[in-house]
Design brief:
Layout: H1 6-18, H2 22-35, H3 42-54, H4 58-67, H5 73-85, H6 89-101, H7 110-120, H8 124-137, H9 143-155, H10 159-168, H11 174-186, H12 190-202, H13 209-221, H14 225-237, H15 244-256, H16 260-270, H17 277-289, H18 293-306, H19 311-324, H20 327-339, H21 346-358, H22 362-371, H23 377-390, H24 393-405, H25 412-425, H26 428-436, H27 438-442, H28 448-460, H29 464-472, H30 480-493, H31 496-509, H32 514-526, H33 530-542, E1 552-556, E2 559-563, H34 573-590, H35 605-613, H36 616-627, E3 634-638, H37 644-657, E4 661-664, E5 669-673, E6 676-677, H38 694-699, E7 701-702, H39 705-710, E8 715-719, E9 722-726, E10 732-733, H40 736-744, H41 748-756, H42 763-782
Parallel strand pairs: 3-4
Antiparallel strand pairs: 1-2, 1-3, 4-5, 5-6, 7-8, 8-9, 9-10
The chain binds one DNA strand of 10 nucleotides through helix 1, helix 3, helix 5, helix 7 and helix 9.
Length: 784
DNA sequence: TTAGGGTTAG
């Protein structure tokens, strides 16, 4: 056999790089060693160094470099560029200085790499030294070098140097202008970006896909829908009409401007064949940004049919889950993250901490937080927010201190969490102290959310009048949340007169919200002012505000059982009623008195007691007690807030039956155990907006814990009251029994059928999947 | 005849 030519081998190594295949790279390396004499030529060595460093196999690349003779600037630049490519900027500098130690001079290819490294590491002084070196060698005149130096100055915040660099450039090309516009946008100088774009067009420049994307970002940041629409028109007339990345930029732009309909239009225009993972992510992010979390989850499930999940996609959908309180879907997405090896990603990790914190699984949030190799402010905020959610002021404050000891400065969001933790825990003095030191100590101007926290803090602790005085002295206009906090406190402490003031402000600011009307009428009702309460209810009806219908549901085996108030339609109704009667007797003995304040009509006491007694969450709980094995926690979900009576009743029941009961309402989680609730009797005073429609109930995704064990996610989808199982690609698994068999390890055929729905890009991937499968099965068997 | 700049999503 003739030895393959160096050119052919070089091309094969390039192929290995472009397909991210270390396997191919190593195979070609082996072929080279078999067919070529040692020492290898510099040409082949350079290719090998490049291949290994691009594929992030730095040890191999360094070893190859040490064997290369002579080592030229090409050898070194191959290694350095690979480091930069894999964001190993410090290694890039290490090799750069090793190169200089061998007296090898950097060239026009080396400088862009090291400029990028210093820009990314925010090292302006190193950047300046490099600039001096590039001036001395004359490399700065090169358009690539000049552009990357300009980019470095922009990214390290040296605006004057950046501008000088741009103005002194002998040549500018499309990339230079793109870099200019992009940095202007990132710097918040959007008008400058627009001016540059116009100037670029004036000097006869022809924009490309990147120019459009970057420019659309400027439009989105200025929320200039009009300008963006003009650019859209421009794009439609250009040859970038069909360009996927430009379309993705448009989806993002419309999403940021709140025009979700246009985002969807652009998305659907791309079509199935051409849309890529970024298209899906942009669409997903646009929905999340516009608070369409349920649709975002649906889009995510559809995206899974076409593309492999990325860290971007997973973190976006996790934030949708967190907003919805969708612990089950969130857990299955966590499993996907493990499988996709992105669970350590900064954004994914932060989103997981946020999800578990918001869903009340604080131990899980702590675990993810502790295990994250890298944290940023968002991560810390998510964890502090988790403690705030629980009302654990001590943990929230100690983490806040710890964060400062790591040299991380808090921001607006951090202080909202810290203050809300104080208010939930009734830590009035500490809360006020932190609020007063916001400007001086942390340099943060208090915003509406901070004021709302303080109103809540004062009001909740009974200082309702002081809270009102505080509002009157506010330097900014009080928002819905500020008045909402006051109304809630008034209801809590029976301050009807002040409550009326707050309610009237709320009706002005947010006339369509049913929650405010409900809280107000309930406040009047609990003060015995039934006539006025009835008037508010009538007003609500007259202007067409309806109180949302409450549902509670509980999952038992492979079915979700949904209940409404006074529901008697369930097939086990007689057993449910018997259970309720039994509980009622035992609770009465334990000292339970029905809290009828929240039953909404002017009824006799006896009738009111029975109204609250038949709330949907109590019926769901009674059913759970009948249907779920003893010792198993009962998880109930409710689309509205849990009422005070049910909250008190479930505390009693948790002690009587010795069971853990977890109720997830539209606002938060309640973890009942031995007569106590994790919320410490606080569950927010927010509006009574249902967190989920019945639509999502059908889409509700549940997940058995076994799936998390092996990092394999199956979606259990509720459809028509039946639980169905779906693979990650959205393929329906026929028969729950088969899946069970598969986990029992009884049927290899069932397992392989299950796996038909899972795409395997190459054999290695498939083997890994099988490995996961076997491991999870072993772990599952070990646990029973 | 091997190495390079600007890049849409959170």
């Amino acid at each position: 056999m003739n030895a393959p030519s160096p050119n052919l081998l070089g091309s094969l190594l390039e192929l290995a790089v472009s397909t991210h295949s270390t396997l191919l790279g190593r195979a070609v390396h082996a072929l080279i060693l078999r067919t070529h004499d040692i020492p290898l030529s510099s040409f082949l060595c350079n290719h090998l160094v490049n291949m290994y460093s691009k594929l992030d196999r730095l040890n191999s690349a360094e070893l190859l470099l040490s064997l290369t003779n002579p080592r030229t600037v090409v050898t070194w630049t191959s290694l350095i560029s690979g480091c930069v490519h894999n964001r190993r900027f410090t290694s890039a500098f290490l090799h750069f200085s090793n190169m200089r130690r061998e007296s090898v001079l950097p060239n026009d290819f080396t400088f862009p790499c090291v400029f990028k490294a210093s820009g990314s590491l925010h090292m302006p002084f190193t950047g300046k030294q490099l600039h001096a070196l590039a001036l001395k060698g004359g490399n700065i005149l090169d358009v690539f070098v000049g552009c990357s130096a300009f980019d470095m100055y922009s990214k390290t915040g040296l605006r004057v140097e950046a501008r000088n660099m741009f103005e002194e450039m002998p040549h500018r090309n499309l990339a230079t202008w793109n870099a200019y516009i992009s940095n202007a946008v990132q710097d918040g100088r959007c008008l400058d970006a627009v001016a540059a774009f116009k100037k670029f067009l004036c000097v006869g420049g022809e924009p490309n896909a990147i120019t459009f994307c970057v420019f659309l970002n400027a439009c989105a940041d200025m929320v200039s829908l009009e300008l963006g629409i003009q650019v859209h028109g421009f794009i439609v007339r250009s040859r970038y009409r069909e360009d996927v990345s430009v379309s993705n930029g448009l989806i993002d732009f419309y999403g940021k401007c709140g025009d979700i309909v246009s985002s969807e239009m652009v998305f659907s225009r791309i079509g199935c064949g051409r849309r890529n993972v970024v298209s899906w992510c942009s669409m997903l992010a646009a929905l999340v940004q516009n608070h369409e979390e349920e649709r975002a989850c649906t889009v995510f499930l559809k995206a899974r049919e076409e593309v492999e999940p990325t860290d971007f996609m997973i973190s976006s959908v996790l934030s949708a889950c967190a907003e919805l309180g969708g612990l089950e879907l969130g857990r299955s997405v966590h499993a996907l993250a493990v499988r996709a090896c992105v669970e350590e990603n900064l954004f994914v990790g932060s989103a997981l901490v946020d999800l578990y914190g918001k869903c009340g699984s604080i131990e899980k949030a702590e675990q993810v937080f502790r295990e994250m190799p890298e944290k940023n402010l968002v991560t810390w905020n998510a964890m502090i927010g988790g403690y705030a959610h629980l009302g654990d002021v001590d943990m929230a404050l100690s983490l806040f201190e710890e964060m400062s000891s790591f040299g991380i400065a808090p921001n607006y969001v951090t202080l909202v969490s810290v203050l809300s933790a104080c208010s939930r825990a009734g830590a009035v003095e500490r809360g006020l102290h932190i609020f007063e030191s916001m400007r001086g100590r942390y340099g943060i101007e208090p915003g509406a959310e901070h004021y709302a926290c303080i109103v809540d803090l004062l009001g909740r602790s009974g200082l309702v009048d002081r809270a009102y005085e505080f509002i009157k002295r506010m330097p900014i206009l009080p928002t819905i949340s500020v008045w909402g906090a006051l109304l809630g406190s008034c209801k809590m402490h029976g301050k009807t007169k002040l409550g009326k003031i707050a309610a009237e402000k709320l009706f002005q600011l947010d006339p369509d919200d049913s929650g405010n009307h409900v809280v107000f009428s309930n406040m009047l009702a609990s003060a015995g002012r039934w006539e006025e309460a009835t008037i508010v209810r009538k007003e609500m009806r007259d202007i067409g505000i309806k109180k949302n219908v409450g549902y509670s549901w509980v999952a038992v085996k492979n079915r979700v059982h949904v209940f409404q108030a006074k529901d008697s339609s369930h097939e086990k109704n007689s057993e449910i009623q018997a259970m309720l009667a039994k509980l009622r007797g035992e609770m009465k003995k334990a000292g339970y008195v029905p809290d009828t304040n929240l039953s909404l009509f002017d009824l006799e006491e006896e009738e009111k007691a029975s109204e609250v007694w038949y709330h949907s969450e109590k019926i769901a709980l009674a059913f759970g007690l009948i249907a779920l094995p003893h010792g198993m926690p009962i998880r109930i979900t409710k689309n509205l807030r849990i009422c005070a009576d049910c909250h008190s009743a479930i505390k009693f029941i948790s002690k009587i039956v010795g069971r853990e009961i977890i109720v997830r309402d539209n606002n938060r989680f309640h973890h009942f155990k031995n007569g106590w609730c994790s919320c410490k009797d606080y569950w927010g005073l927010g509006a009574d907006v249902p967190f989920t429609s019945m639509g999502i109930l059908r889409q509700l995704v549940l997940l058995g814990s076994s799936a998390l064990d092996g990092g394999i996610a199956y979606f259990l989808v509720v459809e028509g009251g039946q639980l169905l199982m779906m693979s990650q690609q959205g393929v329906l698994i026929q028969g729950w029994e088969m899946c069970r068999k598969c986990f029992m390890g009884n049927s290899a055929a069932a397992a392989s059928e299950l796996y038909q729905g899972v795409s395997s890009k190459d054999r290695i991937n498939q083997q890994l999947e099988w490995l996961w499968m076997i491991q999870s099965w072993k772990r599952w068997r070990g646990s029973i």
